[in-house]
Specification:
Layout: H1 7-14, E1 19-20, E2 25-26, H2 36-39, H3 42-45, H4 63-67, E3 74-78, E4 84-88, E5 91-95, E6 129-131, H5 142-148, E7 155-159, H6 163-168, E8 176-179, E9 184-187, E10 190-195, E11 215-219, E12 224-227, H7 236-244, E13 247-253, H8 267-277, E14 280-286, H9 300-312, E15 315-316, E16 324-325
């Protein structure tokens, strides 16, 4: 269930503008709204289509395929949920890798994955770094990290405090790079910057918000990519777009939302809005298609994303699990998921609280 930050960690954490000395936790600039009573209606509102009825058309990826350099210099391989392999301008990164069987503290209990990893852990090509957006179980997976630690030269980029978990699991501190929002780390000509997100953290009852959460921008000599991690809608995305955009492709979470907690995750319509705030060219929806983490239907996030994107004139790419896309080559999305009933934005709106958003 993780490791508490050391005194050295706390010294760095307390120096962060995101740290509250009063509450002794990290806080968001905009408070998070929670309707705890409404959250209890999960099972009553559970969609009959919350899980797939048939196996998904997963594309298996082998090591040779994954190691090939992209013709355009930019390739995104979606491995399900928020796990992506990013090849950008000669460098390669793995985001929020979850190769274990469940999104929980236990391998035998909790939300179980719908399919095996499209790319086996032992077949991962050489990586510059693994990036973790925050320490929730569907983003920081002990099973995965415990196997990745054997790759001796591999770096781990994490938000403030999350390094304590990795050190507790046997990874040397010299391989861990902890970043605050707006802090950067260079990999040759590609710079990785931790960016603001509106979310939370914690792996058990007593460590809530004791570690930071973040998204990441990848800025190379030819390409720019954005990865959201988990986030609700916030004004900071305009600032990210101004400072680090425009982006060739943005990956923003679209799934696992509920009107009882509208600030934790953006939801499909607001994810498209975030893409526009970031000055994105093409949009790849993430954080869906692997686990049942909310009451909505499993296809609903992508259906609503496409409807909103059409209204807004946004170019969306929806890879199959395991599919590698080179956005510069303008691939076309083909429907690989079934047509099943879902609630529209009008029927079940997800609207963040406490924010007014303007698109520059």
């Amino acid at each position: 269930m993780g490791t508490a930050p050391s005194e050295e960690h706390f010294t760095r954490m307390k120096a962060s503008p995101q740290w509250s000395d009063t509450e002794e936790i990290f806080v968001n600039p905009q408070p998070m709204y929670n309707d705890y009573v409404g959250s209890l209606s999960f099972f009553a509102d559970l969609s009959p289509y919350a899980d797939p009825e048939a196996p998904l058309p997963v594309l298996k990826v082998d090591r040779e395929q994954a190691a090939q350099e992209p013709m355009s210099g930019l390739r995104i391989t979606w491995l399900g949920h928020s796990t992506t392999l990013i090849d950008i301008d000669g460098h390669r990164f793995l985001t929020d890798p979850i190769f274990g069987p469940t999104a929980s503290p236990w391998t035998f209990l909790g939300p179980a994955r719908w399919y095996e990893p499209p790319l086996a852990l032992e077949d991962l090509p050489p990586l510059d770094a693994v990036l973790i957006s925050h320490d929730h179980y569907d983003h920081l997976d002990y099973v995965t990290i415990s196997k990745l630690k054997s790759k001796k030269d591999l770096k781990f980029i994490v938000p403030l405090g999350v390094g304590a978990h990795l050190m507790g699991w046997g990874i040397d501190a010299s391989r861990i790079i902890e970043l605050d929002w707006w802090s950067s780390y260079p990999f040759g000509e590609v710079t990785v910057t931790a960016t603001p997100a509106r979310h939370a953290s914690g792996r058990q009852v007593f460590d809530q918000n004791r570690t930071l959460w973040a998204g990441y921008a990848f800025n190379g000599p030819k390409h720019d990519v954005y990865f959201s991690g988990d986030t609700g809608l916030a004004p900071s995305f305009n600032e990210v777009g101004d400072k680090l955009g425009p982006f060739d492709v943005t990956m923003v979470e679209v799934g696992a939302y509920n009107s009882a907690w509208p600030d934790w995750h953006s939801g499909p319509e607001q994810a498209v809005l975030i893409h526009r705030m970031l000055r994105g060219k093409r949009f790849i929806p993430i954080h869906w298609g692997l686990f049942n983490l909310a009451a909505h239907g499993w296809t609903e996030p992508v259906e609503r994303t496409l409807l909103e994107a059409e209204k807004s004139g946004v170019d969306v790419l929806v890879p199959r699990p395991g599919e590698a896309l080179e956005p510069d080559l303008a691939p076309k999305t083909t429907r690989w998921w079934p047509k099943v009933p879902f609630k529209t934005a009008e029927e079940d709106p997800i609207i963040a609280t406490g924010v007014e958003i303007k698109i520059p």
